[in-house]
Amino acid sequence: MVEQQILITIATLAVTLAGFSGVVGIFSKELSTIKSYKLETLLFQSGVALFASLTTLIASQIGGGLKNELEFREFWVISSWVYIIITVIALIFATIDIIKTKRYKKINYDILFYFSFFLVIALLVFNALYIQDAYLFHIALELNLAFAFISFYTLVMPSKE
Q1: Is 125 exposed, middle or buried (0-12, 13-18, 19+ CB in 10 A)?
Q2: Domain boundaries, given as residue ranges, for the chain
Q3: Cβ neighbours of residue 22 under 8 Å, at least 6 residues apart?
Q4: Pairwise CA distance, residues 81 & 102, whole Å
Q5: Which of 8, 79, 98, 114 is buried most, with the most CB atoms less than 10 Å from its CB?
Q6: Average pLDDT value over all residues in the chain
């Protein structure tokens, strides 16, 4: 099934991106607070993409696969709601961290972080209610990975300070 291959690829990319960011974190002598926050958001985004894709991949194997169109649509509705739950949990932990560290006083990078998650949630809700197919689910996963890649790019690029 092509959907499973896409999920495996996205999970692999998420793990690879998180792994490279860990290497950057280890070899950097000291990360500034901005760079450490970018590393944290990268791990959040790639972690969400990883768990959403692996959960869906494992669930697709239960019961011997999807046998008809109705099962296919139900599967992507349930997968979209599970992905929403994973995303909301990640947002709750990120928000708690932002409140504890009082980073909400200077919101700049956070706006893009939250916007990407809200866009993912909107796509998934639309998918669960109306489309009920794999492609919007995969686009949502790609949005998480795109933001993680942007975080990775800004993390490894030398700062202009």
Answers
A1: middle
A2: 2-156
A3: none
A4: 31
A5: 79
A6: 86
Q: Residue 134 to residues 7, 18, 75, 131: CA-CA distances in angstroms?
A: 10, 24, 9, 9
Task: Provide the b/e sequence for 82-105 (b: ≥16 CB within 10 Å).
Answer: bbbebbeebbeebeeebeeeeeee
**Could you give the CA distance from residue 33 to residue 119 in angstroms, rounded to a whole number?**
26
What 3 state SS string does 117-157 have?
A: HHHHHHHHHHHHHHHCCHHHHHHHHHHHHHHHHHHHHHHHC
State pLDDT tens for residues 90-145: 999 988 888 887 776 666 667 888 899 999 999 999 999 999 999 999 999 999 99
DSSP, collapsed to helix, strand or coil, labels residue 160 as coil
What is the DSSP secondary-structure string of 67-96?
A: -SHHHHHHHHHHHHHHHHHHHHHHHHHHHH
Distance of alpha carbon 65 from the chain centroid: 25
